[in-house]
Amino acid sequence: MTRLLMIDDDEKLVALVQRYLTPHGFSVDAAHDGEAGLESARSGAHELVILDLMLPGIDGLEVCRRLRPTSRIPILMLTARGDMTDRIVGLEMGADDYLPKPFDARELLARIRAILRRSGSDQAEDNKGPLTAGPLCIDAASRTVTVEGREVELTTGEFDILHALAESAGRVLTRNQLMEKVYGTADSAYDRSIDVHISRIRKKIEDDPKRPRLLKTVRGVGYQLARTEES
Fold first, then answer.
1. What is the chain's alpha carbon radius of gyration, rounded to the nearest angstrom?
2. For position 183, what pLDDT does the model report?
3. Domain range spanning residue 135?
4. What stretches of the chain show up as alpha helix (H) in DSSP?
5. Are residues 178 and 86 in the same domain?
6. Backbone CA torsion sign across 42, 7, 163, 174
7. Could you tell me if 157 and 91 are in contact, meaning their C-beta atoms sit under 8 angstroms apart?
8. Which of 229, 160, 228 is nearest to 198 (CA)?
9. Could you tell me if 16 and 106 lie in one domain?
10. Quick one: 56 exposed, middle or buried, by C-beta within 10 A (0-12, 13-18, 19+)?
11. N or C, fewer C-beta in 10 Å, the chain?
12. What CATH number should be reported for the domain holding residue 101?
C-alpha cells in the first residue's frame, strides 16, 4: 500500500476518499487542521500530501510554505473551483499540482498516480544518463539538479518541466508541448501553472532571474533551455 496524507477538515470527504482509494492500493492517513497536518507531513512516512487550502489554524498555503524548505514530498492542492489566484499562489509556494473542489474521485486517483509516476515513487529508476545544458546537470534517476556542481532543490513539478526542456535543449517548446510532456494533457487550465513553475525554476538556477541566460522565453511561442549559458 502506498501511504498518502490528506489534510482536510471535511471529515466526510476524507472518509469518502479513504474508501475510494484503498482498493486502488493507497492507504490514506488524515489530519484535520494545519498544525497537525504539517507535523504529519514532516514525519517522512508518506509518498504524497493531498492538501486543502481552507483549514483551521494555519491554512494550506502556510502549511505548504513551512513544509517546502525541508521536504520535497509531492503536494496535490485542493482549491475552490474557479479561484485561480489561490492556485497560482499555491504553485508559487511549491505545490506540484492542483485539483478544484468539488472533484470526481476518478480524477483525484488519476492525478495522484500521475504525480507519483513523475516523482518516481511508483516506478523503477530511470537508467538514462544525466542530461546537461551549460552549467546544468539534470539526473532523472536521482531526480537531482546541479548548477556548476551546486545542488538546487526543485519540486516534482519544477523538476519535470526542467527535465522536459533539457531533453529538447536548444529547441523551443510551447506551453502545450510542456503540458503534454508533464501533465499528459494540453488542458488550458494549466497554462498559468507552466508560467509559475518557470518563474520558480529561474529563481533557483539563474544568477539573475530577470535576465535569464539558461531558461529563455521565446515571446509568443514558448520556452527554451539553452545548450550553453548565454551572456
1. 18
2. 72
3. 131-225
4. 11-21, 34-41, 60-67, 84-93, 105-119, 156-167, 175-183, 191-205
5. no
6. negative
7. yes
8. 160
9. yes
10. exposed
11. C
12. 3.40.50.2300
Task: For the chain, give the number of residues.
Answer: 231
CATH number of the domain enclosing 156:
1.10.10.10
37 with 31: CB under 8 angstroms?
Answer: yes
Mean pLDDT over each residue of the chain, to the nearest integer: 87
Cβ atoms of residues 193 and 182 within 8 Å: no
Instruction: Give the pairing of strands 48-52 and 2-7.
Output: parallel
What's the predicted TM-score (pTM) here?
A: 0.68
Distance CA 115, CA 43 (A): 20
> Letter for the amino acid at 8?
D
Contact 30, 18 (CB under 8 A): yes
Map residue 173 onto helix, strand or coil.
strand
Listed residue (52, 59, 55, 8) closest to 29, CA to CA: 8
For residue range 98-141, what is the model confidence (pLDDT) as tens digits?
Answer: 888 889 999 999 989 988 887 764 444 445 678 998 899 999 88
